[in-house]
Specification:
This protein is mainly β. It is built from 1 helix and 10 strands, in the order αββββββββββ. The protein has one helix at residues 16-23; strands spanning 31-36, 43-48, 54-55, 61-62, 65-69, 83-88, 94-102, 110-118, 121-130, 145-152. It is globular and about 70 Å long. It starts with 15 loop residues before the first helix and ends with a strand.
């Protein structure tokens, strides 16, 4: 008899930050961007999509995407292991730019982890430190520091 067909590839296991986003009501989508850090400080995720629109704490929807978790911001309960989560059920093609801003007025930079997931697979994962840069007019946070750029499809 012929050999059995090969098994289909197993899905990639979710990272701890992906699991944390799910337990905090982060939606599943074709494209997901997760910002995580380990303090009660407020840092913000900024995603500029191929059309030039920006998704962030004061624009929770843009480019058919949504910032469905905004952690430690004003009015939100402070947690010591926060995540912010942007989800795009059907992301547009092109280049996405992700930046991170430190919303604290004083102190040291904040270490963070950034994970980009496309079709269930991690396509970018970086660690960084976002500095305190002073508060930008109209934003309430410091300058958005570029973190990663990627294209869809990868």
């Amino acid at each position: 008899p012929p050999p059995p067909p090969p098994e289909p590839p197993k899905p990639q296991a979710m990272t701890d930050d992906q699991k944390k986003a799910r337990t905090r009501d982060g939606q599943e989508g074709k494209l997901e961007i997760i910002l995580a850090w380990n303090s009660t400080r407020d840092i913000d995720l900024y995603v500029t999509c191929p059309t030039g629109q920006m998704l962030w704490a004061r624009a929770l929807t843009a480019c058919a995407g949504e910032l469905d978790i905004d952690a430690n911001g004003s009015g939100n309960a402070k947690v010591g292991d926060p995540v912010e989560h942007a989800v795009y059920p059907q992301p547009g093609r092109g280049t996405y730019r992700v930046a991170v801003a430190n919303c604290e007025r004083f102190g040291a930079g904040e270490p963070y982890r950034l994970t980009v997931v496309y079709e269930g697979k991690v396509i970018r994962q970086i660690n960084g430190v976002v500095p305190v840069t002073g508060i930008s007019a109209g934003k309430g946070c410091g300058d958005a520091i570029p973190a990663v750029e990627f294209s869809i499809p990868p």
